[in-house]
């Protein structure tokens, strides 16, 4: 693709081209898959966990449940406590259980598409900041008292509420700064990287859940399996497929933005 010569000489930022999108996505995916356990990437792991738990909380609220708390810990584990008046209908239980992994992939796919255009990239950052602030205000308590098997598996403790609150405040501050800077390419690269990590983390985590499920361990898939004829590994496979589709559609839309932008740019052509 040849960009407008006038725009390039003037230093005007344009939408991301196909090469930039694929390069950023590829590098971010490689870094996450190889170094996801490294401590410098812990803030991104915390973001993935927060989005995952918020997915459970949002759908639980939408199906008529009451969310008591959403928390995560410094190790990357998370826990959402919610309740429903009376016995939880099977379909609603499945929707809530599915919302963590699938919801994370959907958020990643949407961010992939939004990141590729200058104005919408800034909008994506502001929307993400607003969502994190809303999660912190609506569902994150200052004090928690986690118990039970879920708390043991997730590594939750009484200080998780404070830790989650501090993370929400820090994340919102960083995102607001990112939205305010005039470096459009930097902002676009960061959003593309975050979107890619959300996508790959949801898919990679489900590979772990598949292993846990095959050994009968506790997981979101086990919760869905208890209410349905499908086994936990089947639910993990279904969520893995849905997550891959959501992320694939987001990447496809992001690459499609490049084609549309190329046709609308004056003085540009494709080859």
Count of helical regions: 10
Shape: globular
Q: What integer is the average pLDDT?
A: 85
Query: What is the share of helical residues?
Result: over 70%
What value does the Rg take, in angstroms? 20 Å
Helices and strands: which structural class? mainly alpha
**Head-to-tail CA distance between termini:** 6 Å
Strand % is under 5%
Q: Which parts are unreliable, with pLDDT below 50 for 5 consecutive residues or more?
A: 1-13, 267-271
The count of β-strands is 2
Number of domains: 1
Strand order of the largest sheet: 1-2
Summarize the main sheet: 2 strands, antiparallel
Instruction: Give the SSE order as H and E letters.
Output: HHHEEHHHHHHH
Describe the structure in your own words:
The chain has one domain. It is 71% helix and 5% strand. The protein has helices spanning 5-10, 18-35, 42-62, 90-115, 118-139, 148-154, 160-180, 184-214, 220-226, 232-264, and strands at residues 66-72, 78-83. It has a two-stranded antiparallel ribbon with strand order 1-2. The N and C termini lie close together (6 Å). The model is unreliable at 1-13 and 267-271 (pLDDT under 50).
What would the keywords be for this entry?
mainly alpha, single chain, two-stranded antiparallel ribbon, 271 residues
Task: Write a short abstract of this structure.
This protein has 271 residues and is mostly helical. It is built from ten helices and two strands; from the N terminus they run αααββααααααα.
